[in-house]
């Protein structure tokens, strides 16, 4: 009976009216941007052409363009954006701070360092070629992200984790890891250095089906685990002591949440590079749209997919040249970060 009541509370939270509406709306917009992403490009394809081809009625040339060139990029954008949005919602919620995102906590930099090491040292890149490890980027990105998150969490621990201390240590870790990454690039051969430098901007241009599968597997496995933490995430907003009193195993809960976020970021970074600010912006927009006390998980994931896929469709269909989507997300996310910091400062001053 207790399990039934717990399940009832879980789904009651997940499918509350406005949250459902926002989640469905984000899904529709994400699919619309995905369709536009398949249409956008140098080869002229119309929306009816794309739909016909997806249903199996296209010409040989259309099938090549849709299934081999554009669909992997669009699917990759959806999966990468969803992974980053969900990871950001998890970290912001467990730390009870909108600034506690994988980008700021050093997780993204750790994954990037691991992946750059795979490119520079063993050639384990999807775009550079299959080197020592055919899955070099996902494996090395996961190791880098896990080691970084463990170190940041351990250094932040003082009888508990304070979000302010966690963020400060994460900023320091990000700077340190960025320096090591730059050193690896500076010492690399010109081919590997160019590939790593281009990849570090954050782009969907090099995505193929082989780089999509690890992200899909990570999302399929980790999303249900994250969703099952919904009730504990809600209770954890009351503080560690109250959460413990209400029966939440706080440390075990945090380890599960952090592990999910870290592996999601590692999978996303291995496929598309460190696309900045998606994990920061998507959960906050989803929270404001849904009018909830914390970022809704599924809506945050879908909004991340909207941002990445929509940004990539924009750069290919409207802007001249091949601009990496990471540049677009940084242009949008950095001002939002400044605004949020300014707003928090004004609140503290008025209080």
TrEMBL record:
Coiled coil: none annotated. InterPro entries: ABC_BtuC-like (IPR037294), ABC_transptr_permease_BtuC (IPR000522). GO terms for cellular component: plasma membrane. Its main location: membrane. One of its GO terms (biological process) is siderophore-iron import into cell. Keywords: Cell membrane, Membrane, Transmembrane, Transmembrane helix, Transport. It is a multi-pass membrane protein. GO terms for molecular function: transmembrane transporter activity. The chain crosses the membrane at residues 20-40, 74-92, 104-126, 132-154, 166-186, 206-228, 297-317, 323-342. It is found in: Cell membrane. Belongs to the binding-protein-dependent transport system permease family. FecCD subfamily. PANTHER family: FERRIC ENTEROBACTIN TRANSPORT SYSTEM PERMEASE PROTEIN, FERRIC ENTEROBACTIN TRANSPORT SYSTEM PERMEASE PROTEIN FEPG. This is Iron complex transport system permease protein. It comes from Plantibacter flavus.
């Amino acid at each position: 009976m207790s399990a039934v009541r717990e399940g009832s509370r879980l789904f009651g939270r997940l499918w509350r009216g406005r949250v459902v509406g926002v989640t469905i709306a984000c899904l529709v917009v994400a699919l619309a941007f995905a369709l536009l992403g398949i249409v956008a490009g140098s080869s002229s394809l119309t929306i009816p052409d794309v739909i016909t081809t997806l249903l199996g009625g296209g010409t040989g040339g259309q099938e090549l363009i849709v299934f081999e060139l554009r669909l992997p990029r669009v699917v990759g954008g959806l999966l990468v954006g969803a992974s980053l949005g969900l990871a950001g919602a998890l970290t912001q919620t467990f730390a009870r701070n909108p600034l506690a995102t994988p980008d700021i906590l050093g997780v993204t930099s750790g994954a990037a360092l691991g992946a750059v090491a795979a490119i520079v040292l063993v050639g384990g890149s999807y775009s550079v070629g299959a080197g020592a490890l055919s899955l070099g980027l996902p494996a090395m990105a996961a190791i880098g992200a896990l080691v970084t998150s463990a170190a940041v969490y351990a250094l932040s621990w003082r009888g508990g984790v304070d979000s302010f201390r966690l963020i400060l240590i994460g900023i320091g870790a990000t700077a340190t890891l960025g320096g090591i990454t730059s050193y690896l690039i500076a010492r690399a051969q010109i081919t590997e250095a160019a590939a790593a430098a281009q990849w570090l901007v954050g782009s969907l241009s090099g995505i193929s089906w082989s780089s999509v599968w690890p992200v899909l597997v990570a999302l399929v496995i980790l999303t249900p685990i994250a969703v099952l933490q919904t009730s504990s995430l809600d209770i954890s907003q009351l503080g560690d002591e109250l959460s413990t009193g209400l029966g939440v195993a706080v440390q075990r809960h945090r380890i599960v949440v952090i592990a999910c976020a870290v592996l999601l970021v590692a999978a996303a970074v291995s496929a598309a590079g460190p696309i900045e600010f998606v994990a920061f912006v998507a959960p906050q927009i989803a929270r404001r749209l849904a009018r909830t006390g914390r970022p809704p998980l599924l809506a945050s994931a879908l909004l991340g997919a909207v941002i990445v896929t929509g940004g990539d469709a924009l750069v290919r269909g409207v802007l001249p040249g091949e601009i990496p989507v990471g540049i677009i997300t940084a242009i949008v996310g950095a001002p939002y970060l400044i605004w949020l910091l300014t707003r928090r400062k004004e609140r503290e001053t008025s209080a």
